[in-house]
Specification:
mainly alpha; 2% strand; 48% helix; two-stranded antiparallel sheet; 184 residues
Length: 184
């Protein structure tokens, strides 16, 4: 979240002059910030919503926001991302409108869940029509015929994957997946 905020604050400093690239980057960063806030909300409920860079001293004084305030920030970030991101990826692993729509649908679905007596991710918001609307906007794609192939290491970036984290397997960078450890 801090890194996304830092780059967002410096996008308009004139270093990137290509407006399409700048908008795509802004969309990607807002998507990531929304994704991380949503992930925190699902684990911890109300968390501090941080949308600007803070010093260490400032960060210590940031209180938790309510669950509804976190949802408002997450939804805003995803909606902004949808408006800025391209329809099709320029390269593998880049976020697109469909990815942001899919995650925003997940946000609305999670928020629609029962409260279960706590102020957690389920808010009984009944946003099911928004979920259906967003899912229907996602570009249809062919299904992978064999279910197990969806998760195969030799079938990465298949048509059933809407969003995943790309790992870089280089010395000193990224991470390895189990297939690397087994020599596959």
């Amino acid at each position: 979240i801090m890194r996304a905020n830092t780059v967002l604050e410096h996008l308009d400093n004139g270093v990137i002059t290509d407006n399409d690239l700048k908008n795509r980057m802004k969309g990607e960063l807002e998507f990531l910030r929304g994704f991380y806030h949503f992930t925190l909300l699902r684990f911890f409920g109300g968390v501090p919503v941080i949308t600007k860079t803070l010093s260490a001293e400032e960060a210590l004084g940031v209180p938790r926001n309510s669950v509804s305030e976190v949802y408002s920030s997450v939804i805003s970030d995803f909606e902004d991302a949808i408006s800025l991101l391209p329809d099709n990826p320029s390269e593998v692993g880049k976020v697109t409108k469909d990815v942001a729509r899919g995650l925003l649908a997940s946000v609305y679905l999670t928020r629609s869940a029962p409260k279960n007596g706590i102020d957690g991710p389920g808010q009984e918001s009944n946003d099911y029509n928004k979920v259906i609307e967003l899912v229907n906007q996602i570009t249809p794609r062919p299904w992978v015929a064999n279910y197990a192939d969806i998760f195969s290491y030799v079938n990465e970036n298949n048509t059933d994957i809407l969003f995943d984290v790309e790992l870089i397997n280089q010395i000193g960078m990224g991470s390895s997946y189990p297939g690397d450890l087994l020599g596959e």
